[in-house]
Design goal:
This protein is of the alpha+beta class. The two termini are about 25 Å apart.
Length: about 650
Amino acid sequence: MKQIELKDFLNYTFLSNVTVSPDGTSCVFTTTQCDEENNTYTTNLSMWKDGNTIQLTSSGKDTSPMYLDNQTILFKSSRDTKAQEKVKNGEEVSSYYTLSLLGGEAQKAFDLPLNVTKIEHIQGNLYIFSASYNQDYSIFGREDQKDALLKAKKENKDYEVFTKIPFCHNGAGYAKNTVNRVYLFNSESKEITPLTCDDNHVSTFTLNKDHSEVLIISHKLTNKPSRKMAVCTYHFESKEWTSLIKEDEMIVQGAHYFHDGILLIGNKELKHGQNENGRFYFINKNHEITLLNDNTLSTRNSLGSDCRYGGGKTSKVTGNKYYYTTTREKDGIIVSLDSKGQLQDELVLVGSIDCFDMHENDFFYVAMKDGKLQELYRNHEQLTHFNEEILKNKYIADYQEVQFNNDGVSLTGWVLLPKDYDPSKKYPAILDIHGGPKTAFGKVFYHEMQVWANMGYFVFFTNPRGSDGRDNEFMDIFGKYGTIDYDDLMKFTDIVLEKYPAIDPKRVGVTGGSYGGFMTNWIIGHTDRFACAATQRSISNWISFYGTSDIGMFFAEDQIHGNIFNNPEKLWEHSPLKYADNIVTPTLFIHSDEDYRCPLEQGLQLYTAIVDKGVDTRFVLFHGENHELSRSGKPKHRVRRLEEITNWMEKYLK
């Protein structure tokens, strides 16, 4: 049996944005591949129909497909050379094309002079879309100032001026006075009409069933924005706004037209902090809000992987029910909610459901099922086979489930056996820790883990307290970082070493990213049991994190239950940097200079302390990457990142 190689992920196909035709006879979706030579990704459209998969486009720049009717799709593309020149010149352009599914070439439909974030077809020539609008430099509405705006944008590119927090956003850079607005667009007259103002940031919008009205979630732009959202509707014919939820009333995670009212997902009160799973509320015609279901599970797929690219729908109202993805323990599930507040499992599989659409009783979805890479499925039938050849006749480590208890809490972990495993031999091992902490591991294909198993390592991982996939009580480790979660990970390590005596306890390494990076930093400051560590996009100091991260101003206090004003001691108590004097473990740091979620300074502080102590260490900094390096970074950077971690493990564990 062949070995999975480190660079094999460059040949994987990532599926996303599955969309079903109005009659349910076909579906379109995007496929993405790595382009190592140009250090980028190519994305094209494909269609499944009558048992066949057909590639529809080949420009490598096509995304976001939607059906205009059963035979025609609209999609976004950056293939147009004139539009590319405008963007290069500093203008904002989003180009859309139509394609007949009966045959023929794609035709330019229209250009929009903004960076569109979402678009929906209302009827005929009328569309609604949201787009980012830069209050300083966007040309739309100020066409007569175009030359001056472009000149100012170019002249000021070396300067940043902040007046609000957060002053940056991971993946988007510094804030630059940008707001997401909603617009109406007539594709025949080319008229664009703003619906929202430039001091109101729109999170998302949803059309009602007959497309006569739109539901909008938004918040006011202030120096310090609230975590709470306002919900309102706009009627297209009467041009009337109706306020449903004021901005100071609740944290809104989602809103949908549902039966004869509005379904809200969110919380009025937070017993378990900002990450608390949303409850279901219903707003009737009289605008009265009632609790529909006191939900305690996540309303999203939270199973991690390094083998996805792109997004897609994860919820939908159809018929009389609201359907959404969730994670329960290791399973990916589509759940339905009815008007009485009853929840029902509609589709359950071992693995993750990454996006879905549906027609009547048929679910079309992209999933990582039974430990395999992504494919398209209808109900329980596999429709595509994009990733089977690349893994054919290669060793894919199976998931050995390990059940254990700690402090009276039942926990689950998994172990991947090394290729050609011989229980009479001794092997090195790697403990891998997920991010979040409100995410989860499951039986989902992780390229890095499979590479290590193929290279002769045991790989083991678990969902300690703080993880998703269970209720709010299990998720709630706020104010407890580095305590019960650390105990769970160390207990799991003990159990694995006991269960698999072939693991050499002197050759065990540890790695993790984001929260997993924090926990790696914490572990090496509290034990010397690991022969080496690789900490990625990590947190080391909650005090400085507060003022430098794009989420620091609320996340630090929410998670740690301390703040810089009257309880800095609590933040310092849970900071790995406080315990740096204990560290003797050789440690590799992986960080990116555009990571505004766990900023570069977090890694540098602990790195400096370790070097100062004389511990063997190495810091690898990726320019132009952000917090998503391991998942959507440039292909060559992803290769180098995994090479660095793997070489570090090889150096100290073999």
